[in-house]
Amino acid sequence: MMEPPIAPRPNRPHRGGLLLFVLILAAWTVALCAPVDQSAAAEAIGPPGRRFYVSKLIHIVGYGSLTMLAAMIPNSLQGRRFLLLVLVLHAPLGEFLQGFFSRTPAVRDVLLDYVGIGLAMLVWRRPWSGIFRRPPTESPPRR
C-alpha cells in the first residue's frame, strides 16, 4: 500500500517561540519600569554623560533585539505584522508605565525604540519584506 503524501503544514506561529517572545517582552517591561540605583550605575558605567548614552543605546538594542526575535518566530506575514504592531504600541506604553515607578517617561526614548525597530528591520530584511504591501487581490476572470 502506498501512503498518502503528507500535506504541507500551514504557516502558523511556533508556540514555543511565541511564548519566548511574550516572556522576554514582559521581562523587558519590568526592566524598563524598575528604578535605577544611581550609585551602582555610576560604578558600572561611569560619569552621568556616559550613563545617558548607554541608557539610550539600551533602548535601541532592546527593541532591535525584540524585533529580530519576532522575525525568527515561524509565522505568516500577518503574524509578523501583529508582532510588529505589538512592539510599536509597547514602546509608548512602556514609557507611560515608567511614570508610575519613579522613572521619568520621555518621548525621546520612544523615538529611540522606533529607531531600534527600524534598524533591525533594515539589517534583517528578509522576514520583513512585504510587510507594508497590501495582499494581492484576486481579479475577476477575463472573458
Characterise this structure.
This protein has 143 residues and is an all-alpha fold. It has a domain at 45-128. Helix content is 63%, strand content 0%. It has helices spanning 15-33, 38-44, 48-72, 77-98, 107-123. α3 (48-72) crosses α5 and α4 (77-98) packs antiparallel against α5 (107-123). The radius of gyration is 20 Å and the shape is elongated. The model has no long low-confidence stretch (mean pLDDT 83). Keywords: Membrane, Transmembrane, Transmembrane helix. This is : VanZ. The chain crosses the membrane at residues 57-75. It comes from Tuwongella immobilis.
Summarize the structure.
The protein contains 5 helices and no strands. It has 143 residues and is mainly α. Keywords: Membrane, Transmembrane, Transmembrane helix.
Q: Secondary-structure map with pairings?
A:
Elements: H1 15-33, H2 38-44, H3 48-72, H4 77-98, H5 107-123
Helix pairs in contact: 1-3, 3-4, 3-5, 4-5
Number of DSSP helices?
A: 5
Q: Structural class given helices, strands, pairing?
A: mainly alpha
Measured distance between first and last alpha carbons:
44 Å
Q: Which blocks of ≥5 consecutive residues have pLDDT under 50?
A: none
Principal-axes shape call = elongated
DSSP strand tally: 0
Rg from C-alpha positions? Answer: 20 Å
Strand proportion: under 5%
The major beta sheet can be summarized as: none
Percent range for helical residues? 55-70%
Mean pLDDT over all positions: 83
Q: SSE string, helix = H, strand = E?
A: HHHHH
Keywords: Membrane, Transmembrane, Transmembrane helix
Organism: Tuwongella immobilis
Protein name: : VanZ
